[in-house]
Amino acid sequence: MKRLAKLLTAALLSALVSVNLIAFMQARAMTRFTDGSERTRPPEQLGLVDKLAVLATGIQIPRPTNRRTPKDLHLDFETHNFAKLAGAVLEAWFIPSALERALIVLFHGYAASKSTLLTAAEAFHQQGYPTLLVDFYGSGGSSGSGTTLGVKEADDVAAAVEYARRTWPGRTIILYGFSMGGAAVLRAVAVNKVRVDALIIEATFDSLLNAGRNRFRAMSLPVALLTELLLFWGSVQNGFNMFTHNPADYARAVKEPALILHGEADTRATPDEARRVADAMGTNARLIFYSGVPHMAIVEARPEEWRRDVAHFLDELR
To answer: Please, where in the chain does CATH 3.40.50.1820 lie?
Structure first.
């Protein structure tokens, strides 16, 4: 019996160490970009063997680069660089407009760059709005490497708004954020006390805990223990409490008119999460769902509907 008890204790300790090691590796891989490696495919596209390999070593995400520029869409643009805290430099593209309308500042999603915002920027341009597309720290043309999933990116949002006010004084400013970009925008409003004229939030999660759970569900893995350990080790590695990174909480600070766009088939940030973000804003928010759209840019999945709904929101502001 004593020997059996020792074996069971050793097995439990080994399992505990293994689970924590997996969570540690996953947390590290999700916030640190790699150099020159091939990006891990989405969980839905992985077989069992590949899922086990990713579980053991973590996902591989190369540092995001800008694979296109506004020139590819026949749009004139200027490249702007501006500083944020600690000496980092952020890069942005400014696409002018002939009309003196509000400036829309766009922020990309997780493990992406500002080139992924070009379709939305083109749509805004066609409606007469100038745009400023921003690379978060660690992505595209900005300095550094890695991500904090929208936490420190809120500082980038604040720096971009400050730069926009200096460069285009007196201009109405509207913030657009996709997925993690939306989380960063909401955190900037709540924590950095950024004040603008309106917000457009698309495909954004309500809490980092739920975002982690959704990722493990996509891999057909148990979500309860692994997600909590993922956020715990991520908090240790990055020096902030990831359990408090909750856009639905940040949304309570929003006083500006807000448009929330969300795909009904989004499994990375579910429709219920979008409702919680909208509910936190109260009467300031308008929530629109798009049937059959997964976690992707809605302007690419439902271009006519997206343009119509955004144009209606912007026209009401004017």
So the answer is: 70-207+245-317
In the CATH hierarchy, which fold is given to the domain comprising 70-207+245-317?
A: Rossmann fold (3.40.50)
pTM comes to 0.92
- Chain-centroid distance of CA 312 in Å reads 25
Contact 132, 92 (CB under 8 A): yes
pLDDT per position as a tens digit, 242-260: 999 999 999 999 999 999 9
Q: Cα 304 to chain center, whole Å?
A: 24
**β-strand partners of 104:** 131, 174
